[in-house]
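mind reviewing both lines:
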Amino acid sequence: MRDFRILWISQTVNELGTRMSTFVFPLLGYALTGSIALAGLVEAAHLLGLVACLLPAGVLADRIDRGRIMRGAALLGALAYGTAATAALLGVLTFP
C-alpha cells in the first residue's frame, strides 16, 4: 500500500508539472520574444517532440524495466526543468 501511495503522489506531481509546462512554455516564449507566432512555435515543437518520441518510447518500454524508465524519465525531466529555471533566475534564458 505504501508503494502505491508513493507512486500515486509522484505521478500526480509529475502530471501537474507536465500540464503547467504545457501552459507556461508558450507564455515564456512570448515573454522572451514578444511574438505570438514564436510562442505558438514553442508549443508546436513540444507536440512534434512528443509525437516523435512516443513510438520509440513504447518499444523501449517493452524491452526495459518500466520502473527504471519511469525513474530515469522523471530525473531527466527534473534536470531539464531545473536548468531552464536556473537560467531564468540568472537572467540568461534565451529563446533557442
